[in-house]
Amino acid sequence: MAKILVVEDEPAIADLILMNLKLVGHTGFHTDRGDKVLSDMEIYKPDLIILDIMLPGKDGFTLMKEIEPMQIPVIFLSARDELTDKITGLKLGADDYMVKPFAAVELLTRIETVLKRYKIGGGNVFAMDNLKVDLDAHMVLLDSCPVELTIKEFILLEILIRNKNIALSREKLLELVWGYDYMGETRTVDVHIQRLRKKLGLDDNIKTVYKMGYRLEVPR
């Protein structure tokens, strides 16, 4: 998993991000001032940076100019939602730009996408008991035997793995797997979850969260 530096001056937001990073297995570090970022980077040597724009000491755009030559991936996370701000951030070299308020599951998904792009963290093979999932090769082995999954089943499994130990609503799973414009019902998620449980022997691991959705429970 990856080392991630969270540059955020609002304690509640920083704590939320750090908690979710820990839940999925990343190591999170925090700094609340822009003028401390470069020295903290020397200490923590992060694989990825989550960067606010409006910071005491030094703003995020100025920092991005200093970070960009180091080739460390950056995701801007800011309350500034103007298109010009997003364009500025991306042109400065950021890999993504998210606007507050945000859903933790979406931030985690974007983090995983960036880490995968940079091949960081070695987290693309998931293993638990007799199950092994190679997320890059789209290969699933149960007791060392290949298991055939449909495209949607594999995408759903990957999302559960990347958000392990986090409860995901049916609506969020529907959005992430089938897309914003999917016209079907959340019952589709239930059917695919049952198929994964049956094919992979995950009845005890894919938990139903009452009146919400599902969570893949993985020993920590």
Question: Keywords for this structure?
Answer:
220 residues; alpha/beta; Rossmann fold; Arc Repressor Mutant, subunit A; four-stranded antiparallel sheet; 8 helices; 40% helix; 21% strand
Describe the model:
The protein is an alpha/beta fold. It folds into two domains: 3-118, 3-Layer(aba) Sandwich (Rossmann fold); 149-216, Arc Repressor Mutant, subunit A, CATH 1.10.10.10. Helix content is 40%, strand content 21%. It has helices at residues 11-23, 37-44, 60-67, 83-91, 104-118, 151-162, 170-178, 187-200, and strands spanning 3-7, 27-31, 48-51, 74-78, 96-99, 125-128, 131-134, 139-142, 145-146, 168-169, 206-209, 213-216. The chain has a five-stranded parallel beta sheet, sandwiched between helices. Helix 1 links the parallel strand 1 and strand 2. Helix 6 crosses helix 7 (170-178).
